[in-house]
Amino acid sequence: MRAVVVVPVLKQARAARAAQADAASVSRPPESRLEEAKGLALAIDLHVVNGSIVPINDPRPATLLGTGKIEEILALLDEFNAGLVIVDHPLTPVQQRNLEKAWNAKVIDRTGLILEIFGRRASTKEGTLQVELAHLNYQKGRLVRSWTHLERQRGGAGFMGGPGETQIEADRRMLQERIIRLERELEQVVRTRQLHRAKRRKVPHPIVALVGYTNAGKSTLFNRITGAGVLAEDMLFATLDPTLRRMKLPHGRTVILSDTVGFISDLPTHLVAAFRATLEEVLEADLILHVRDLSDDDNQVQSADVMRILGDLGIGEAEGAERILEVWNKIDRLEPEAHDAIVQKASNTENVIAVSAKSGEGVDRLMDEISRRLSGVLTETTITLPVEKLALLPWLYNHAIVDNREDNEDGTVTLDVRLTETEAVELERRMGNGPKPQREDWE
């Protein structure tokens, strides 16, 4: 479909309320917003025929844009024979309806566009349910009186009938019923994910989570260090569903690497709520790799957006400083002088590693740093000592934290313990065999 992209920019001179409503234009240049909006459109195979930045001095409650701009965009639609307008700004239901009437074309705002992308990308049952739930919550607030069939229906008994129920109310009721069913299904999915997490806690493998702005190169880095075949393309939201894989660190320790959905500025609240169970994988991580695209001029603003979302999830600045390692990615795209300067700056900055996930430059240093960071992390595991290994009990009580002990009828002893990487390796040596992984990934 041929589409026109419009980026409204509210003037900063307006009241604080207007500035807050258009916070993205304050923190990010309009040109960058336009390029990102075009990228979002391309992610669902739309053909963008024109993009424009529209300064707004006085937002109109009915249409957001002024009549002159509406007529200009109408002329563009006729000139390029386009049937879709993407407005990179939140639109009220009334504004969306009025603009569709004025342009005789389909109109979607930023939230609607992101929801469409997520709907295309979701492949697992959990992802599909989360996207549908977010979409229904979004649509529930956009049922507005537009046609005569939304007039009040007759109800009750007698000739005149009671007040009955409007078609809008009936539609909202059906949407709410579907939302309740989806929430129940998601509750079961969440319980299953919690069981998977509980199972992983019993295996002495720390969890490393990749987070970052969309298209920062997380999936490419994930594939580079795990050898996985996760979809990695130069587009926004190339991957959506979380993926977890085992990987070996340079000193032999096994960790679980988690690739999560990319973040974006003004991420719809419906999606944040629906994907909270998925994003909780980040909360469970022992180490968070914040991947940044250093070839993007807006990487500072993008980083602030990511940190804001992590804060909303409950990872504060103090905690984040200990758990977050910044990965400056895509240094292969930089000019030689800029490349050398970034590598030098990263080497002199704490909690920063410069890499190229595409070429592999710096990945070895990243793996060494991950290994160093996790060397002192306590991991939980459950072991059963056979009768011939009961002599290990004193060593375990001296070198590990024993949370629970169960003496079995056959003479074996089952222990829930917490121990460091060095102690885990030593335990495997003394046992003669380490814990065998049951599967190669959890999804």
CATH level-four homologous superfamily name of the largest domain: P-loop containing nucleotide triphosphate hydrolases
- The low-confidence runs, each spanning 5 or more residues with pLDDT under 50, are 13-26, 145-164, 434-443
The CATH topology of the largest domain turns out to be Rossmann fold
Q: Quaternary arrangement of the chains shown? A: single chain
Regarding CATH, which class of the largest domain? Alpha Beta
Number of strands: 14
Shape, per Cα inertia axes: globular
- The portion of residues forming beta strands comes to 15-25%
| Cα gyration radius (Å) | 27 Å
Helix content: 40-55%
Average pLDDT works out at 79
**Continuous helix count:** 17
The largest β sheet comes out as: 7 strands, mixed
Distance between the termini: 33 Å
The main sheet orders its strands as: 10-9-8-5-7-6-14
